[in-house]
């Protein structure tokens, strides 16, 4: 495809300026102060699609809008549904950013901004490859539907309803998502498994108001102590979750899969340096990759109680709360996990403390088939974009909609990640490598052709 490849070479500056424009919009889905920015990001996409003569709808939901676009129909050709998200995580802690999170800044071939890799940069690779096809050939060789939502980072609450109500409109042969990572520098990957998640907040109440810890301490149960006791009872020193029944449905790793993980060029010392720890931690009997990709875990995300200001204050706080989650693996059911957790927390809750458990988003873990004509096409496309064939990996993060696509549309997802493990997603100084951005656009552009070659 000489025209197409030349177009991609010649329009790199244009692609980067599109990315910068979108990154400048602070579309933080968790923060209601950013509602107007969320809307601006959705509008930016709608304008982009309409400018390319795609049909495009901005769909209102009870939360943030969904953008749905379609390329001109090609009879008899396969249909691909591209999913991505235009919302981003909150940027804090702000003082740890070397350049402001919504002023995209280039350093060492990387573009730094919140959302650079998760998911604006990765999602845009597909939008821009569609643009390249439209501007060179005037049409695509297959049917592409693009579904870009604004609530992924807050659990995709309104997306499932939309998919359920629009099964025909979203009908497709395969889903493509770029919202994961390569395995390592120069080692592109196709991800065939993701962990699920079950997310909670535990709220504890003790005395009717904060008390003097000298006058009352020792006679009244301290909610902050109760919270630490209860949360720490959920995991042992070896990283095993201590909720009866938690491991009942866990899909075991096969020897084959363990061997495949072990054969990947994973550097344990480099991993420790990357995250800045002297030792790794985790469930006994499993390697670091197994622990991250294929074993369930427990993590605490935030603790709130008592005095947080400067200096010391001898207070016995009236309440304490903690946010925490389990990452789940295939076959574990988030609803069953919630029921088992509730039972265990009731047992653990000490006298003199009232508890309330808030249940946030839940999503099951997924694995997709490794062998399919779609996988083969994706592998060839990645080879075109990145100069070498991908390895097959699993990842520890969650994309809740992948199981929804399987359950409601009956289709599998190709997880084609252009990011890197050290892109600082959800952290200060998020970045996306610009060479990876352009490689991703090229891989995507070739993917449409590779899939077209494989007519039904
Ligand atoms: N892009 C990530 C998912 C991801 C992260 C996949 C790392 C593979 C590796 C996505 O935007 C995300 O952050 N998902 C949340 C889901 C949650 C909000 C329901 C996650 O994994 O915490
Ligand atoms: Mn993402
Ligand atoms: Mn994310």
Helix content estimate: 25-40%
Overall CATH class of the largest domain: Alpha Beta
Looking at CATH, the homologous superfamily of the largest domain is Zn peptidases
Number of helices: 14
CATH fold assignment of the largest domain? Aminopeptidase
Report the sheet with the most strands, covering strand number, pairing sense and barrel closure.
9 strands, mixed
Alpha carbon gap, first and last residue: 22 Å
Low-confidence stretches: none
Number of strands: 18
> What is the 3D form?
globular
How much is the radius of gyration in Å?
23 Å
Q: In the residues, how many domains can be counted?
A: 2
In round numbers, the mean pLDDT is: 97
Q: Give the second-level CATH assignment, the architecture of the largest domain.
A: 3-Layer(aba) Sandwich
Bound molecules: ligand BES, manganese (II) ion
Strand content: 15-25%
Class by alpha and beta content: alpha+beta
Which features would summarize this protein structure in a list?
21% strand; Alpha-Beta Plaits; 14 helices; 2 domains; 4-stranded antiparallel beta sheet; binds manganese (II) ion; 18 strands; binds ligand BES; 9-stranded mixed beta sheet; Aminopeptidase; alpha+beta; 456 residues
What does this structure look like?
- The protein contains 14 helices and 18 strands.
- The chain has helices spanning 2-10, 12-23, 35-51, 116-136, 159-165, 213-216, 223-232, 255-263, 268-275, 288-293, 334-348, 373-386, 401-409, 434-452, and strands at 55-59, 66-70, 79-85, 105-107, 110-112, 143-149, 174-177, 189-194, 196-205, 211-212, 297-305, 315-316, 319-328, 354-363, 366-367, 391-395, 413-417, 431-433.
- Strand 1 (55-59) and strand 2 (66-70) form a beta hairpin.
- Helix 12 (373-386) packs antiparallel against helix 14 (434-452).
- Residues 118-119, 152-153, 155, 179-180, 197, 361, 363, 395, 397-400 line the site of ligand BES.
